[in-house]
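Hey,
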Amino acid sequence: MELKNFQELIAKVQNNDSKKRVAVAAAHDEHTLEAVFRAAKDKLVEPVLIGDKEKIKKILKNLDVEFDEDSIISTNSDQEAAEKTVELVNENKADFIMKGKLQTADLLKAVVNKEKGLRTGKVMSHVAILEVPTYHKLISITDGGMMMYPDVEEKKQIIENAVDVFLSMGYECPKVAVLAAVETVNPKMPETVDADIGADQSQIRTA
């Protein structure tokens, strides 16, 4: 199975009986709330709002969105909002996180916390899923910025993370391409050396 576009992905999620709960960290942001409630209207997610409760209530009123105000989790700072969001995931009260009006660094600090974060013992990496109008299916790019200078083993785990994402979406055998600026091994370009090692170890085609 290969998803051709986001509409097919949306339809797949809508056909799933179990809706995922998205914990919105620092939810007091109009654009964030507009997006998450559009997703809720499309029956994709169930929102869990964390942040400045009064600001959230005001924005929801302006957006003409009905929501149980008593269920809004009030926090006094971005750090507290990030920590509470991670706590909800750990307690199985939310399935994933959406970033609201806070710095990415503040959110990631709570996510990667060694004691209370979401670490699993594996490398944490970023996966971006893209729909390209001139291409016949969805593609992804990894890593988009979490791992600045990964070594060969970390690159292997980054690939495994991306493969796991596509397996969870229903793909039977995701295809992987290891990309570098040139097609041949150049000792002055560590990326090409790592790609050559990776290809030998896992039979992943380099390009």
